[in-house]
Amino acid sequence: MEEEKFFYHPLENIEDVDLFYEAVERNHLTKAISPGRPYTYWTLELYDQKNGIRGGGGLGVLAADTRRVAEKLGVPFALITPFYPYETHQIMKDGTIYDDHVPVNYEDYGFKFIDTVNVKCCDTLCELSVIEKRFKNTRIIGITEPNFGELYSGMSGSDHRLYQEVALGFGGYAALKLLGLKPAIMQLNEVATFFAALARLDELTYNGMDFYEAMVYTRKHTLYTNHTLVQAAEAEFGYDQFEKFVFPNIKSLAVKKWLKDKFTENRLKLSSVTIEIAELRSGVSKLHARVANYHDVAGNKVKFKAVTNGIDMDTWVMPDVMEYYREIGVLDEYDLPTPNYIDALDAVSADKIRELKKIGRKILNDTLKDRPDHTGNILKFDEDDFIFDFKRRFVDYKRPDLPFRDPARLRNILEPRGAHYIISGRVHSGDKVMYNKLQNLLKTITEDDYLSGHVHYIPDYDEKLAYGLSAGCNAAINVPIVGLEACGTSWMKDIANLSFLISTHDGGVADASINSYLNVSGANEDEELDMLYQRMEEALSANENDFDLEYILRQQLKAYLPVISGSRMLQDYIDFLFPR
Ligand SMILES: *Cc1c(COP(=O)(O)O)cnc(C)c1O
Predict the structure, then answer these.
(1) Mean pLDDT of 116-143
(2) Cα 135 to chain center, whole Å?
(3) Which of 52, 89, 350, 387 could disulfide-link to 473, CB 3.0 to 4.6 Å?
(4) Atom 9 of ligand 1: nearest residue by CA position
(5) What is the full DSSP assignment across 20-32?
(6) What is the mean pLDDT of the chain?
(7) Do residue 166 and residue 226 come from a single domain?
(8) pTM exceeds 0.90, yes or no
(9) Which numbered atom of ligand 1 lies nearest the CA of 56?
(10) Could you tell me if the CB of 466 is within 6 A of ligand 1?
């Protein structure tokens, strides 16, 4: 109850803020997370198909993995996210891609209805259902209603997006109260979740805390995790939109005034206010934290703490490989690298790698049984086929078309060894440029009599394909334009599942040295392309040579295993949030 007293401790004036900071640190941040005071994680996107929620990409996968890791480490954790009543699938018919909207019912996935909460929108009350699914020490709290819409439907600055964001923030905060939970920390997965922290600020202020106290308190307990590199690229909203969706939900006049003052020329970027409301800020890889170009309202560059993303290894790594890592003393029971994992990795042998990749190949063939390629074929690969794979969202900066710039050379690399190349990645609905690039790519494939039988596009990329491909392919290609990938996690799945990584030095890959994997670099795109082809040749020959195979894969694991471990990531977050 000491906590309650503290909540209402009055401050005479703003000069007392330093004292208040000290008090906050003494009394609160050192207070451990508890079941009633969980670590809360706010995200507009969750990618967790097992629990009925399909995301769009890495941001959602990261959210799902963070909860799974918290579960494993016993951290009380609540993830608050929308439950979208529809999800989009991409189906391919006669070479054309169509969007298919499939309804999803939360009850089918073990969610229970708790109660309703309201947010105000356009002069009416919107009733939102609060649903919950509990695990041991973690839970997913969903906010939903029949007209909630789909993930990323509409433009990023649209009324509907703002409605979804407000519903998650204000609705989600009300849901926590309904469930009797107080957040120990609020982690905001991108600025779209800003309204959750705003709801807290408003609640504290409205309940009698001085505005500055409430702001300091909220700031001290809010972590803003940034995944975007350039502030200018972020969506903004207009004052009129806030009048419809945001201001009516704010009870405190002081908070309303604070927010109104943040508009310039009637426009507001959520990043500018998120930076103010969150004192703790993180970027998702070392490189990203260094180069993210953000400024606060005073024009000062914002510093981001680097907490590189990791993956939940039990989700993404073949069980046989995980067992092997534990057997040779590389990983401990929490999926953290052991103190002597580097030496232990010297036990990884070519024979064992080949044995494990054969199991991976079966997993891939199983995955592909109901996932025909772009021509409608069901693919089945032999144990000895060499497969390159490129699997990630079809967006320009990831350069899915790069290896196809010189189809004759690509053919010359693949053909002598009968190698295959699998591509999987969804085009964002409405992205005409990338849709055309995909069509051109498919045309290039069709026009070559070798490539047409050995390059395969698998539509509707999702978690199952991501897993099957990283388990069953031999070399993964990851060639974002350097400087544009915040972290990326699919390359982590590949390294952990014993594939060669052919990559540019970007995102989380740049956490370790350039010699740790099959690096692609160059002064311009032609040079990069040339090196990419060389690396593909190298992977093909290394696969036939025990020494090279062992050397490269051990090297990759030695450099990246700590990065890959999601448990390491959560531990980094907790050390940052609750310094000892
Ligand atoms: C792992 C994964 C991602 C992450 O992809 P990156 O391009 O590496 O960020 C995206 N989508 C799915 C379905 C995944 O499994």
Answers:
(1) 96
(2) 21
(3) 387
(4) 488
(5) HHHHHIIIIITSP
(6) 92
(7) yes
(8) yes
(9) 11
(10) yes
Q: Which two tokens stand for residue 162?
A: 């703002």
> Distance, CA 428 to ligand 1 centroid (Å)?
14
Rounded Cα distance between 220 and 184, Å, is 10
Give the distance (Å) from ligand 1 centre to CA of residue 17. 43
Ligand 1 centroid to Cα of residue 488, in Å, is: 7
Same domain, residue pair 81 and 115: yes
112 Cα–ligand 1 center, Å: 29
One domain, residues 372 and 478: yes
Ligand 1 pocket residue status of 164, Cβ below 6 Å? no
> What's the rounded Cα separation, in Å, for the pair 88 and 243?
31
pLDDT, tens only, 488-524: 999 999 999 999 999 999 999 999 999 999 999 999 9
Residue nearest to atom 11 of ligand 1 (CA): 57
For residues 305 and 325, membership in a common domain is answered with: no
For residue 323, the enclosing domain spans: 313-564
**By the 8 A CB rule, do 56 and 152 touch?**
yes
Q: Whose CA is nearest to atom 7 of ligand 1?
A: 392
**Ligand 1 pocket, 568 CB below 6 A?**
no
**pLDDT tens-digit series, residues 417-451:** 999 999 999 998 888 999 999 999 999 999 999 99
Instruction: Kindly state the average pLDDT of the residues 49-56.
Output: 90
